[in-house]
Specification:
Elements: H1 3-17, E1 21-25, E2 31-34, H2 37-42, H3 46-49, H4 63-69, E3 80-88, E4 94-104, E5 107-114, H5 116-138, E6 142-147, E7 152-155, H6 167-170, H7 184-197, E8 201-208, E9 214-225, E10 231-240, H8 242-293, H9 297-328, E11 336-339, H10 340-358, E12 361-364, E13 371-374, H11 376-392, E14 399-407, E15 410-417, H12 427-430, H13 450-460, E16 464-470, E17 474-484, E18 512-517, H14 521-530, E19 537-542, H15 545-555, E20 559-563, H16 571-580, E21 589-593, H17 598-607, E22 611-614, H18 619-630
Parallel strand pairs: 12-14, 18-19, 18-20, 20-21, 21-22
Antiparallel strand pairs: 1-2, 1-5, 3-4, 4-5, 6-7, 6-10, 8-9, 9-10, 11-13, 13-17, 14-15, 15-17, 16-17
Helix pairs in contact: 8-9, 8-14, 9-13, 10-11, 11-13, 15-16
């Protein structure tokens, strides 16, 4: 085969197998030959294009480029040209092609390379750059671009009204020149962290504003990196947050004031509780003694009014103190695993007598067989309160339905009554302390604190309490708690206390000595009068803690009643002395106090007290406790002569 024949064959193979478009166009602009790439790229078959004018494939907006490419220049017509055109695809879309065209006599030889992706990328990049520029120019916040040495490469126009340096003055400056010297280290550390970890950094510092004042600035930024990931600078966006910082400070100050006010209120309520309980101890105490000694029905009825009113006052004192502690977040709750089934059974039993007297039917659908983590005493207090309200705010012949359901790891206890219902607009008032929604006019006993306290307690357990009601139909109060996954632990709260019935001691008694250390004369007289019902108990008293310790060594009493607040030595110190001396360390000590807080009780029990009684005393329970401690065999310790 001749060399020129080989060249022709090789060219034809190149022509037909090329991945780029190749075409031969005659002098009239019609396709003479097109390769297979026209089908692969544009979708046209060869037979569809041969004899067709190339003009029909060119986007109308690009025809001028073809004409201009071969316009004579200085009387010479070019024989070669390059141009970028949009070519029509068979499906009606267009693709960008870069053409290289060579004219040889009356024929044109054209090679087209698909540059659609590059064009799209460049267009997107241009749009992105334009958008970034628009953001950069229109930004209200300051935007600056730093190099790796923290020099300002570019600054947004907004800098003219932000920092004390204009846009033109800022560019070329060291970024820390408008940062307070004391904040340099913090800013450098933040920028370094952004360079090192490729994270968005946020830093607050003091910067110079337009009038040369140091103001609070918050900056957020991110490092710029090259293709290898090496930091080349950073973009920093800053804003003046002086007003925000000032507002936060005002809010924090207000919060601190509120916390202090709540603390002061809590302290006041605690002190008032103590001061009210002390005289109430005498009122209720002597009333109980009279009730024990009087036989006349009329006198007992009158005493009943005193005891009922005193009990109401004591309930009010307890709830007000609890409300105060809930508000300050200082209420003591001992979280344990509580069985919902046992809780429901116990609480329904507690209110069954009240429901029977009111003619209300309690429908118990049973407690869910799950446990929650809560204070068992407080949780029972909440459920009993809901049940009691449902009974009180009901009508004879009505019903109270208790339902427990478990959904998505939460248990809901719902108490539904058939009472008058509550207008939804009054829901918030239901949980406001002392707001009883005119219940007193209906003769319903209460303090107006139960729901407010219940809501606070349930929230202290991590739960929620709410209501749904329809006027004329009834109300549903519900509480919802997380289900605990650990098996329940049953704790007997009274395991350390003697379980005895009140009244006269059974069996043979012995002479016993009781030492009472108390500075309130009324409380001493109360115990003296009460012990007339226990003639075998000899009472020794003192108002001073220091003297009480000496009397304990001298008389070796069988039991010591110790007041918490004494005029000379605190009760906790007297208890410590008694526990430290081998001659008195085995004498049981029972604390008496008007302070009913759980923290206080735990403190004295941890210090060695056998029991802690709160004033006002329940005298029947008190007598039972004395019998439990004093009706025992004589101890072997002999009195020590002084």
């Amino acid at each position: 085969m001749k060399e020129d024949s080989i060249e022709v064959v090789g060219f034809e193979q190149f022509f037909w197998n090329s991945s780029d478009l190749m075409a031969v166009v005659d002098a009239h602009g019609n396709f003479l030959h097109v390769n297979a790439a026209f089908h692969n790229i544009l979708g046209w078959n060869t037979q569809e294009l041969v004899g067709r004018s190339y003009v029909t494939l060119i986007h109308p907006d690009d025809l001028a480029h073809v004409t201009a490419a071969f316009d004579p220049v200085d009387g010479v017509t070019p024989t070669e040209a390059e141009m970028e055109l949009r070519e029509l695809c068979r499906d009606g879309t267009f693709r960008w092609m870069k053409w290289t065209i060579k004219r040889d006599g009356r024929l044109h030889y054209a090679v087209g390379h698909d540059i659609t992706l590059r064009k799209q990328t460049m267009t997107a990049l241009a749009e992105s750059i334009e958008k970034s520029r628009a953001i950069f120019d229109a930004a209200v916040d300051s935007i600056i671009v730093l190099d790796e040495n923290l020099m300002v490469v570019e600054a947004s126009p907004s800098n003219d009204g932000f920092f004390s340096f204009s846009k033109s003055a800022t560019e070329g400056m060291y970024a820390l020149d408008f940062v307070h010297p004391d904040d340099h280290a913090e800013v450098i550390e933040a920028v370094s962290r952004g360079f090192e970890k490729d994270e968005v950094i946020t830093v607050r510092y003091r910067g110079l504003n337009t009038i040369g004042q140091w103001v609070a600035i918050e900056s957020r930024g991110r490092a710029l990196r090259d293709a290898l990931g090496t930091p080349t600078g950073a973009v920093i966006i800053s804003r003046d947050i002086t007003k925000v910082v000032e507002a936060q400070q005002v809010l924090e100050d207000a919060k601190a004031d509120a916390v202090q006010a709540n603390y002061a209120k809590s302290e006041f309520m605690s002190r008032m509780s103590h001061e009210l309980r002390t005289p109430l101890n005498s009122v209720l105490g002597f009333a109980q003694i009279l009730q024990m000694e009087m036989k006349s029905a009329e006198e007992l009825e009158l005493l009943g009014y005193i005891l009922k009113s005193g009990g109401y006052l004591l309930e009010l004192i307890n709830k007000v103190l609890d409300i105060s502690r809930v508000e300050t977040g200082s209420i003591a709750v001992e979280l344990e695993l509580v069985s919902i089934n046992d809780l429901v059974t116990s609480c329904v039993s507690d209110v069954s007598h009240q429901a029977q007297e009111a003619g209300i039917d309690i429908i118990n659908d049973g407690g869910a067989d799950v446990q929650v983590r809560a204070d068992p005493h407080r949780l029972a207090q909440v459920l009993v309160n809901l049940l009691t309200n449902a009974i009180n705010f009901n009508h004879r012949g009505g019903s109270v339905t208790l339902i427990s359901t478990v959904t998505e790891g939460r248990v809901r206890l719902s108490v539904t009554d058939t009472g008058p219902g509550v207008d939804p607009e009054l829901y918030d008032r239901l949980f406001a302390p002392f707001d009883r929604l005119d219940a007193e006019s209906k003769g319903i006993h209460g303090t107006g604190l139960g729901l407010a306290l219940s809501k606070g307690l349930v929230e202290a357990f991590g739960g929620s309490l709410g209501v749904h009601s329809m006027v004329g139909v009834g109300s549903t109060f519900w509480m919802e708690l997380l289900v605990a996954t650990t098996p329940p632990i049953f704790v007997d709260d009274d395991s350390r206390r003697p379980h005895l019935d009140a009244g006269e001691p059974n069996g043979v008694t012995r002479e016993a000595t009781l030492l009472y250390i108390e500075d309130n004369v009324g409380n001493v007289r109360l115990i003296e009068r009460l012990l007339l019902h226990r003639p075998h108990i000899r009472l020794v008293t003192t108002v001073l803690g220091s003297e009480g310790f000496a009397l304990a060594e001298l008389h070796q009493p069988d039991l010591i009643l110790l007041d918490v607040h004494l005029p000379d030595v605190a009760g906790i110190e007297v208890l410590a002395q008694l526990q430290a001396d081998e001659q008195t360390s085995d004498i049981p000590v029972v604390m008496l106090s008007a302070d009913a807080s759980q923290e206080q009780i735990r403190r004295f029990e941890a210090a060695g007290a056998k029991d802690y009684l709160t004033k006002p005393l329940d005298l029947q329970h008190f007598l039972a406790l004395l019998d439990g401690y004093l009706d025992v065999k004589p101890r072997s310790v002999e009195p020590v002569a002084k």
